[in-house]
Every structure is written in structure tokens, then in C-alpha cells.
Amino acid sequence: MDAPSPATFDEMLAPDGTVREAYRQYHHWLSQQDSAGMRRKNFEAESFFRRTGITFNVYGQDDAEERLIPFDMVPRIITAAEWRKLSRGIEQRVRALNAFMHDLYHRQDIIRSGRLPERLFRNNPAWLPQMVGLRPPGDIYTHITGIDLVRTGSDEFLVLEDNARTPSGVSYMLENRETMMAMFPELFTKVKVQPVSNYPRRLAASLSACAPDCAAANPTVAVLTPGIYNSAYFEHAFLADQMGAELVEGSDLRVIGGRVQMRTTQGYKPIDVLYRRVDDEFLDPLTFNPDSVLGVPGIMDVYRAGRITIANAPGTGVADDKAIYSFMPEIVEFYTGEKPLLNNVQTWRCADPDSLKYVLENLAELVVKEVHGSGGYGMLIGPAASRKELTAFRAKVLARPDKYIAQPTLALSTCPIFTRNGLAPRHVDLRPFVLLSPGGVEITPGGLTRVALKKGSLVVNSSQGGGTKDSWVLDE
């Protein structure tokens, strides 16, 4: 079960120092730039982000103030051929995830077939019995999905995790591109890059295509936010503005005449599609958490009646579970009849006795994650852990092995970042954003590249000191 770690793949430079195809035009341009001028540009980018208000909150810390998202101005570049191959695998996976959601809340054929253990969702807090038998408009559950990818070789991208509940970060993808185009307009005349700026328009069209039958010819779309103190409020407001949609809070909405309606200066107006950025638990106090003040009392009754679309559908968080993730190869094959085009990272389920034994014996070499964890929290990176941390985590895993999975410590690919001393390689991942509607699948070319700014770090999450960079997919 143990495999040797491959050498780190540098996405810009080959081992002999030559520049890889994806970066040739950019590298040629960069070699002609003045280093002092580039440092000024780097300062301008930081100032731009501060003025725009591109920040996030870190919860659970004494200094949980808003923080600037670190931005690196060296783009991450992918060739058109690489992207075509990736896109096929991403589309296959997203279609399988949506089919899995439908099956899990209806016949549960994958359980009956023995491919997936029933225990994985029966005791899963993300699985909602209230969704059983409910068919959302258009049979779409995962309207917006973020598939986290890591690269480990010249031709190997692996799926690190799936984000089907409320994938975030698309506003940073868009602002990163806008910042780059503002700072280096001449660069985009030399290197032909596929655009991402049409994402909000495509998102609005995709959501509108999922509107219920009772919707008017031009469906009303709204973004439901928990409010200004939420860590991703910037993104909620940004997307609502860019889509031309209303930004609403739970207090702006009520159920009137069997429809969810929002308060306007002309009275209450029905909403057809609600892009919610509120967790399931707080969505409807009459159905879920009775103490919630963030959601809309009665919205689930309207949803059951087929008179509003909620994106993403309640209960899709099951797909974010890392124990479910470990079964994704079986899930893809079950619903598509095809072998997965994108492979998972090798994963050991600690709930399995043989896997648990292996994990405990090799804890210092593995990455161990909570099945419901996110944001880089609740995980152990064995090679970077102290003996005390290993001992403490071993006790946690032994106490509740079903709560953990383990993976090898991957040699994530590196991309260059700009530092005071010039370019330096840092580890990266990639989150493409995928839209699903009855009309098909749309994948934004590139997505959000997250980068571990600390030398040697493998943790790219912004909450853990990571940053972002613009992702380029080259035109044909």
C-alpha cells in the first residue's frame, strides 16, 4: 500500500532548466521586464485589493478581523490541450455527482448494489431525510460545483476533493484576472488567454434555466447571504452585483401566497431562483434549526411544492464528505458506465480495520483529515507534525476512526511566485468552477489557483496563510 513519492513537478521549468510550452510566451515577456518596475506592480496589486475590499474573515481566532487575500502576480498557465483533457474528466465527475444526489434521495440503487455502504450517509449530518423523494426543478442538485485538483506530474491531475455544498472563491478568480489585465494590459496582447469575465453572466443564465415551471419568462434570481459578518460576504455581494441579481438576507424574505417573496420598494415580489449561501441547518427554522434567524420560515414547503429553485439543493453537502470522496471512482463508474477520467488521490478509510492499522503505523508519513473538515482545519500533516502532535492525533483517530481518512503526502506541483529576491517555486492547487443546468455543463476555463506562500508548505488555504493567483488557459 506504500508508494514512493514522485519528484516535485515544476510547471514552468523542466529539470534541465528549459521553459515548458505553457510558459514560453510569458517567460519571454517577463525576461524583458525591469525588476524594480515589477516590484512596483506588486505593490499596486496589493493596494488595488485593499481598495476593492477583497478580504475574508478567519473564525475561531482571537484576531478574527478581516484579512487581505494575498495575491501573487505570476499567473498559473495551462495549455489548451491540457485543459481539454481536464474538462472531459471534470464534466464526467460533475454529472456523476448530480446523478448520485438524485439516487441517494430516491431509489438508492448504489446502496442496493453494494457499491456504497449505507452507514456512510445514514449517520451523516449532511444527508437530509427531508429531501427524500423531492425532485428539484430540472432534476439539478449541484448547480455550482468546485472540483479541487492537484498536479503531481506532467500529465497527471488528481482530484483532491469535491465542493458541492456552497463552493466559494469565484470572486477571487474574477478579481485576479481583472487585476492582471489592469496592471499588464500589453501582456494580454502577446499571450492569448481564454476569458473568465463572462462567468457571472453564464451563472445567471444557468440558474435561470433551472427555474421552476411557475416562473415568468425572465425568472427572478436572488443571492441569499447570512449578512455582512459572514467570511464570504464580499463574494455574495460581488456575484449579486455582477449577475444583476438581488442580494437578500432572510429578514428580506417571507412566504406569501405559496411563493417565496422579497421585500421591495413596490411591495413583495416573488423569487424564482435562490442562490443560497446559507448552510442547510439555517435555511428554514420550521424544518431544520428552529433557532435560525438567517433563513426563511416555510421555504422548504415552497420548495417541495416545486415553486422555487434552491441552488445548490439542500443535502448536497453529502458529496463534500471525504469518506464519500473515497468512493468516487465507484460512483462515477456506476452512474456513467465509464472509468473515471480523473483519478482520486489514494485514500485510506480509517473506519476500515485494515486501513486503520496501516494509518496508525504510518501516521508520520500521511496526511489525515476529518471527513467533514474544510478550510485546512482538523487535519494532520504527518511529516510536519511534532511527536506530541502525532500522539494527540493518534488518540483522536483511535477514539473515532469513522471520522477520519488518510492520504499520502503528495508532491504537489509548483508554480513560481514573485518575491523580493525574484521568482521562487511554491505549491499550488486548482479549483475549476462548474455550472450544471438542464442545458448541459459549463466549465470556466481555469478557475481559482491557490498557492502556499510559505516555502515548503503544502497548505494552500487562505485561512492557513495561502494566497491566490490568476489561472490562465491558453487559447488554441
UniProtKB/TrEMBL annotation:
Pfam families: CP_ATPgrasp_2
Domain spans labelled Circularly permuted ATP-grasp type: 75-452
InterPro entries, alphabetized: ATP-dep_Glu-Cys_Ligase-2, CP_ATPgrasp_2, UCP005522
Name this polypeptide is given: Circularly permuted ATP-grasp type 2 domain-containing protein
Domain of life: Bacteria
